[in-house]
Design goal:
Layout: H1 2-27, H2 31-51, H3 66-89, E1 93-94, H4 98-107, H5 115-157, H6 159-180, H7 189-214, H8 218-235, E2 240-241, H9 254-282
Helix pairs in contact: 1-2, 1-6, 2-5, 3-8, 3-9, 4-5, 5-6, 5-7, 5-8, 6-7, 7-8, 7-9
Length: 284
């Protein structure tokens, strides 16, 4: 049953990605096409469960402990602040920029407010209403990657192999639109592909730990939403390239990848130890 479920899920993921990513490459990186792509992962998981006769409750719909959501929401602010702060401090990127702050204010039409208050209002709106909007798309991916795939692979092969494989699949799934659409940082493609893959695989340890430790897919969705929101809508607008052809920050940056590895290490350790404890408890 497990093997059949996984093969069916991967087949559906491939078909849906071919359609949705093909449309993005052909017609542009639009909000609705991206939403369709992200929710195609959920659709693949739900169809797999229905076809194989498994209950949808297996996806982990309980809300989960508050501490897991708190970690999920704050972690991207932490690694984003460190990555962009380091890059800005040593001249690998410009951060923060006055023009970026002004752009954030303009994006919410708060230019009538004085400079500090307009930015504060825009950031507050982004962190609240923006988070709800980000959750609505992030949830689509997390139903599939963490609700369905992560616990099944972990049960089959263990935390580290399962998380590495999930992260590698997740990274590969993004690659066509990274290379052939505008979903990139505008720098050297090879470095951006490598940096993005390292970030995604490293952070998969955090996502997997949140899912398994909380027994809920929602903390992983909170982390995904928080990452997309703060990296793409706050840190990226506040930064600018410093003349290097290699992207240093953003989701595709070398510095971001290195910081993500460091921030994810404790969660890889916790996940490995936690799964060993489950194995030990199940032993006669």
């Amino acid at each position: 049953m497990l093997r059949r479920s996984l093969l069916l899920f991967f087949a559906l993921i491939a078909v849906f990605a071919l359609i949705a990513e093909g449309a993005i490459i052909a017609f542009g990186f639009t909000r609705l096409l991206v939403t369709a792509l992200m929710w195609s992962v959920a659709l693949a998981a739900i169809l797999t469960l229905k076809i194989t006769g498994q209950p949808l409750a297996n996806l982990g719909w309980s809300w989960g402990p508050a501490k897991h959501h708190l970690i999920a929401l704050l972690l991207p602010i932490g690694y984003g602040g460190v990555a962009y702060g380091i890059a800005g401090a040593i001249g690998l990127a410009r951060f923060p920029t006055a023009e970026g702050a002004h752009a954030i204010v303009l994006s919410q039409n708060f230019q009538a407010l004085s400079a500090p208050w307009g930015l504060l209002a825009a950031l507050s709106l982004t962190a609240t209403a923006g988070l709800i909007r980000a959750m609505s798309t992030a949830l689509g991916e997390e139903i599939g990657w963490r609700g369905f795939l992560a616990p099944r692979l972990t049960a089959a092969v263990g935390f580290v192999p399962a998380t590495l494989l999930t992260g590698a699949i997740w990274a590969l799934w993004h690659m066509p639109i990274l290379v052939f659409s505008t979903y990139n940082g505008g720098g050297d493609t090879a470095f951006e592909m490598a940096s993005f893959a390292v970030s995604v695989i490293a952070m998969s340890g955090v996502f997997a730990w949140l899912r398994l430790d909380s027994r809920s897919l929602w903390p992983a969705a909170s982390l995904h939403a928080s990452h997309n929101l703060f990296i793409q809508s706050v840190f990226d607008p506040l930064s600018a390239r410093a003349g290097y052809h290699i992207t240093m920050v953003s989701e595709f940056g070398v510095v971001t990848a290195a910081v993500c590895v460091l921030f994810s290490l404790p969660f890889w350790i916790l996940g490995t130890r936690g799964f060993r404890r489950v194995e030990a408890a199940a032993s006669p």
